[in-house]
């Protein structure tokens, strides 16, 4: 996700429109935003010791609700530090890097904790949103299921379900009949016995309040007064538990539940959280709202009961399938959101005081909170390593092919700063993926790749029963025509082979997998011997599934590592005088280019002028492009950085051609 485009648009959409406290006078809308060109280049910012930034302008619209008048203005929202082509930021003349964070992904996690008194594993679950209140589900020694909201006091799971609209005991137990099957331990029955909101209480509610509550939770269904009474009582009990000491009312209770779980501006699972939640509970991965639903809570409790009965799988929080990369765009987006929410409060206060005649967006918006939040982010270190334990620092089997196990600092930061492995990438959800080559076990009868393949199972003509090709025999040119005459859709089982990148559809030859999806496959090692047709030569090969390594037949393998170097990132030392290695890895040119220390052409052009300080190239339209060279720029530890031109006048250069370094 590009922060400049989608990220900023999302946070402006979250706070827009801003309404006054009465919701009757003003509406302030944020519309399109635009970054204007930077005043100075990155190199000039270093020399002047200023921040490399671009001004942000936002088009706003103020609606006067009482008169219907609309005022539009373009507002300056501050200078935002911008990333250079090298992936760095220049803050007060110093080059800084924002390190991506590897954090626990939003979603649902199930663990078991052994009870010291009963010595059995009790399931706990954590529902972590992208933004909003955490839900923690627990199982007691007496088989009672309970819920904690934001680590506050416990609420019975049945009270929680009742507050969400499941009124009667038999309705609650019916939701879990399929999974709550252990005759000796009935979890929902034990929970209902401990439920203080099981019976309608002595508190009476106004009829119109009960109707309003019913319409909120059961829109379109026939009104049931007793059920509404039970739901209202459960909501009051929920409010008492979370707000002890405050006088409960039905309106306050309903607002609390709505704001905690169903209000998009306060509770957001996020795309990643919804994806992980649905995937963990076996639902359609990308379907569902970004807030919670009653069905989500029911699914979590069902899975807890299954795990308590010893049938389900628990989660490993250190597994890379449960951790995602939070890159610089998302980190800055979070800071901008904080600043905008602070600004929203100030705008609301100004709306109560401003004269409608003189009201204008420019007068209502104070950009100081936004600018301060962004400056705070870039001005100081965000990370603290004091509390990081051994488990966080340790190498985990899911790091294979994703995080280099070698490259990490020694000392207090060991295991906390890591690098991506050579071939790893980050997907749209922030999970690290590793590439694998696809292993094929069969081919279509019409495949052009049949010739020379060794048949794994005899091919028989279904019409006359004649064997066309025997098992373990290569398909010769004289057999191709007979195979083509087989019925449409016939697949021929062949000795397992690895698809080449030059296949008819090269994208089919490589599959990218996150750590959790990888465990669904059996993967062969990259050093397994292949013949000239990429067929496995040996009858037994090394295969891994998750962290288990076994020997098996090639027919069991689904995928194969792309390279023996797949797990590594780099193991090297810097050189005072750069020179080509005697034994190379093949990616030296890419490493040099990615270092950002080279001067490369931005257009297809001809070099028209070269000196020690700049290279000038002219494109086909006659426009000159100046590439300045850095001369003896100070770096750290008393060393300096210097660039020399390697292009000469008259050279024809393409986009990306190296002209100096």
From TrEMBL:
Ranges of residues in domain RNA polymerase beta subunit protrusion: 30-370
GO terms (BP aspect): DNA-templated transcription
Domain of life: Eukaryota
SUPFAM superfamilies documented for this protein: beta and beta-prime subunits of DNA dependent RNA-polymerase
E.C. designation(s): 2.7.7.6
Listed Pfam families: RNA_pol_Rpb2_1, RNA_pol_Rpb2_2, RNA_pol_Rpb2_3, RNA_pol_Rpb2_45
GO cellular component, one term: DNA-directed RNA polymerase complex
Transferase in keyword set: yes
Keywords: DNA-directed RNA polymerase, Nucleotidyltransferase, Transcription, Transferase
Gene Ontology MF: a single term: ribonucleoside binding
Ranges of residues in domain RNA polymerase Rpb2: 104-326, 382-426
InterPro entries: DNA-dir_RNA_pol_bsu_ext_1_sf (IPR042107), DNA-dir_RNA_pol_bsu_external_1 (IPR019462), DNA-dir_RNA_pol_su2 (IPR015712), RNA_pol_bsu_protrusion (IPR007644), RNA_pol_Rpb2_2 (IPR007642), RNA_pol_Rpb2_2_sf (IPR037034), RNA_pol_Rpb2_3 (IPR007645)
Domain DNA-directed RNA polymerase beta subunit external: 507-563
Top-level EC class: transferase
Catalytic activity of the protein: RNA(n) + a ribonucleoside 5'-triphosphate = RNA(n+1) + diphosphate
Family of the protein in this entry: Belongs to the RNA polymerase beta chain family.
Protein name as catalogued: DNA-directed RNA polymerase
Species for this entry: Geodia barretti
């Amino acid at each position: 996700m590009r922060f400049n485009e989608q990220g900023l648009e999302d946070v402006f959409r979250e706070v827009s429109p801003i309404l006054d406290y009465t919701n009757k006078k003003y509406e302030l809308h944020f519309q399109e935003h635009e970054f204007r060109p930077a005043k100075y280049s990155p190199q000039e910012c270093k020399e002047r010791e200023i921040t490399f930034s671009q001004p942000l302008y936002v088009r706003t619209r103020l609606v006067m609700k009482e008169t219907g008048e609309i005022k539009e203005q373009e507002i300056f929202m501050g200078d935002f530090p911008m990333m250079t082509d090298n992936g760095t930021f220049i803050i007060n003349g110093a080059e800084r890097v924002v390190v991506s964070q590897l954090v626990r992904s939003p979603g649902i996690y199930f663990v078991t904790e052994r009870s010291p008194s009963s010595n059995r594993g009790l399931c706990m679950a954590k529902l972590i949103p992208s933004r909003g209140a955490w839900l923690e589900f627990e199982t007691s020694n007496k088989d009672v299921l309970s819920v904690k909201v934001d680590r506050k006091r416990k609420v019975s799971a049945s009270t929680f379900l009742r507050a969400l609209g499941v009124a009667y005991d038999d309705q609650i137990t019916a939701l879990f009949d399929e999974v709550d099957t252990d005759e000796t331990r009935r979890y929902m029955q034990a929970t209902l016995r401990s439920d203080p909101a099981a019976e309608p209480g002595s508190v009476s509610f106004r009829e119109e309040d009960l109707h309003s509550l019913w319409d909120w939770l059961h829109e379109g269904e026939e009104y049931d007064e007793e059920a509404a009474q039970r739901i209202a009582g459960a909501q009051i009990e929920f409010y008492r538990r979370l707000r002890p000491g405050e006088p409960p009312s039905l309106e306050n209770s309903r607002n609390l539940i709505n704001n905690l779980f169903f209000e998009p501006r306060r509770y957001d699972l996020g795309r990643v959280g919804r994806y992980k939640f649905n995937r963990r509970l076996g639902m359609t991965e990308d379907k569902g709202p970004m807030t919670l639903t009653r069905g989500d809570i029911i699914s979590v409790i069902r899975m807890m009961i299954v795990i308590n009965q010893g049938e389900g799988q628990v989660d490993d929080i250190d597994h890379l399938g449960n951790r995602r990369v939070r890159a610089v765009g998302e980190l800055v987006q979070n800071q901008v959101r904080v600043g905008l929410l602070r600004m929203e409060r100030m705008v609301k206060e100004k709306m109560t005081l401003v004269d409608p005649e003189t009201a204008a967006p420019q007068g209502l918006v104070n950009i100081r909170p936004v600018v301060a939040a962004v400056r705070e982010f870039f001005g100081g270190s965000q990370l603290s390593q004091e509390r990081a334990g051994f488990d966080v620092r340790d190498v985990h089997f899911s790091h294979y092919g994703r995080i280099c196990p070698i490259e990490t600092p020694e000392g207090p930061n060991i295991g906390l700063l890591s690098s991506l492995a050579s071939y790893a990438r980050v997907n749209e959800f922030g999970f690290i993926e590793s590439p694998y080559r696809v292993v094929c076990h069969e081919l279509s009868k019409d495949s052009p790749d049949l010739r020379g393949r060794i048949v794994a199972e005899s091919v028989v003509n279904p019409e006359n029963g004649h064997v066309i090709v025997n098992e373990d025999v290569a398909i010769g040119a004289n057999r191709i025509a007979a195979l083509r005459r087989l019925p449409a859709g016939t697949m021929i089982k062949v000795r397992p082979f690895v698809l080449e990148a030059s296949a008819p559809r090269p994208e089919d030859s490589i599959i990218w997998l996150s750590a959790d999806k990888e465990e669904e496959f059996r993967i062969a090692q990259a050093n397994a011997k292949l013949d000239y047709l990429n067929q496995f030569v040996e009858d037994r090969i090394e295969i891994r599934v998750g962290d288990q390594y076994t020997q098996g037949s090639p027919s069991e393998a689904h995928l194969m590592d792309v390279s023996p170097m797949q797990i590594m990132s780099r193991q090297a030392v810097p050189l005072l005088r750069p020179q080509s290695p005697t034994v190379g890895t093949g990616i030296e040119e890419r490493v040099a280019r990615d270092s950002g220390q080279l001067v490369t052409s931005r257009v297809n052009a001809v070099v028209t002028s070269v000196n020690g300080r700049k290279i000038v190239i002219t494109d086909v339209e006659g426009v000159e492009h100046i590439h300045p060279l850095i001369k003896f720029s100070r770096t750290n530890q008393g060393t300096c950085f210097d660039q020399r031109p390697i292009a000469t006048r008259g050279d024809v250069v393409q986009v990306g051609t190296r002209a100096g370094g």
